[in-house]
Amino acid sequence: MKTKLNNTAGLRNFSFRLFLFLTISGFISTFGQSKSNLEIFFAQIDSVGMQVRQNIQDEDLPLKINFLSSPEYSILENRLTSFFVKNNFKISREESSQLSINFTITEAVVKYNDSFRDGLFGDILVEREINLNGNFLIPYKSFSKDFAFSYTDTIKYDQLNEIENRAYPFTQNNHPSEPFFSSLIEPVIAIGAAATAVILFFTIRSK
């Protein structure tokens, strides 16, 4: 009799744990808040600034930056200017400045690949790719260089609106649709598992 009661209690505890696990597993996430697309572009621009700096010897001369990009990238151009100011460069507006660079962004784009489910009850995730391409020219050294930076990571689907900046179209792109099969089958499995746990609980209790 004692063995039967122990078995019943054990099955009841197992049923409860199964139900509890299936209920809360969908709310557990290992992903924190992702960096915004603009923040990643800023980091890439800083890397371009480092490349330019490595090829400039006369850092004491005032620096004239000639921006030749599309107007939509003006915030990235401001970031580059800020990089040089923080690194103790004096910025000049004089066209006759001895130290000058011609700077062009040819592409700044965000791409989202197809969404997918992180496990059976996990978050919907999306692979994000951010590319920055362009070139710079240092006339007095007759030096020109192309740059290309690519950043790839995985983010939560429900963060897509948060990581974009509506004021800057280049930080946005079309969002992929949610995975159809997983969004359809998840409620069915969840309800089935919960029903099974409840039925098992009352079946054992009635014995």
Describe this structure in words.
With 207 residues, the chain is of the alpha+beta class. The chain has two domains: 1-30 and 182-207; 31-176, Double Stranded RNA Binding Domain. The protein has helices spanning 2-24, 37-54, 74-86, 160-163, 180-206, and strands at 63-67, 99-117, 124-138, 143-156. It has a four-stranded mixed beta sheet with strand order 1-2-3-4, with helices on one face. A hairpin with a 4-residue loop joins strand 3 (124-138) and strand 4.
Low-confidence spans = 22-30
Radius of gyration: 28 Å
Alpha-beta classification: alpha+beta
CATH topology of the largest domain: Double Stranded RNA Binding Domain
Distance between the termini: 12 Å
Mean pLDDT: 82
Number of strands: 4
Helix content range? 40-55%
Number of domains: 2
With strands numbered from the N-terminus, the spatial order across the biggest sheet is 1-2-3-4
Strand content: 25-35%
Largest sheet: 4 strands, mixed
User: What is the second-level CATH architecture of the largest domain?
Assistant: 2-Layer Sandwich
Q: Helix segment count?
A: 5
Name the helix and strand elements from N-terminus to C-terminus, one letter apiece.
HHEHEEEHH
Q: So what's the CATH class of the largest domain? A: Alpha Beta
The global form is: elongated
Q: Can you lay out the helices and strands and say which pair or pack?
A:
Blueprint: H1 2-24, H2 37-54, E1 63-67, H3 74-86, E2 99-117, E3 124-138, E4 143-156, H4 160-163, H5 180-206
Parallel strand pairs: 1-2
Antiparallel strand pairs: 2-3, 3-4
Helix pairs in contact: 1-5, 2-3
